[in-house]
Amino acid sequence: MPTSRHRPVHRAVPGVDAAAEAINVPLGNSFEDKFIDIPEKGVHRREVNVNRVRDQFFRTLEVPLLAGRDFDKRDTLNSPRIAIVNERFAHELLGGSNPLEATFYTARGRADEKVYQIVGLVGNTKYRDVREQFQPIIFLAESQDAELDADSTFVIRSGESAASLIAALKEVAEKASPEIVLNFGVLRTTVLRGLTRERLVATLSGFYAALAALLAMMGLYGIVSYMVIRRKNEIGIRIAIGASKGSILRMILREALTLLGAGLVIGTILAAAAGSVASAMLFGVTPRDPMSLALAIGGLALAAVCASLIPAARATGVQPVEVLREE
Fold it and tell me: What angle do CA 257, 263, 269 make, to 5 degrees?
């Protein structure tokens, strides 16, 4: 959207909670790079991703400002050049030291050398692909850039539906200038489109996991039922000599849980061994994710206990007289 250094048209649209201008947007698959020097940290000609944004950019995208300040009206063409960096930049290039005390140089030693003072620290974000690792990023104030691009990109956050918001933006833009050409993209749609394969694999994995849990329940139910039938006489005799129903129930469940424990140990070992395959196919899953393993173990344990309760409860109803009569 073409613009000038005045109030952008998108801020006149009802329903817009926050908006800001930027050169690059998340998952836009593009970035500007610069070579920088930080003599105090031994960094020389390090290539770093750079984005040029205006005030409210981080608020619009809900990127946390961890330290320092955001860009504001103080940052003009004539004011000292400033920058905001992300956590990865502070960790990798500054060694975890306070970034608000650091400066960096571009084109150092040349006539067009520029010095930037870091005034803010923000959380890590991804711009090329959701699967990429976090990269060091420098954010520069677009208000300090003397060269205006013919095109502009805005990020907008709103609680309105995408269709109604786009219609309102088009209406306001046409009133401002009939020559404005608008192209729209929805970040949520972009993220979901980029994770199509992972979502499909996750859906299929969930379906087969539920099917496997159902088969496990049926199998354990059958084993425990068969065990109860084979030990019917023993159970009847135990009850005849004074064993309580609670002790019979605990005995059956104890044996069922022994089978469960053996299965969980073997399954956990196999799952840990196959974790690298899952991490390659599912976004955000580590090869040995303890939370995923804990949830799987807990779910299977619960399913096994539920499957064992019915035959175990049936065992407590064995009548000693009937057992002795059969003998």
Answer: 135
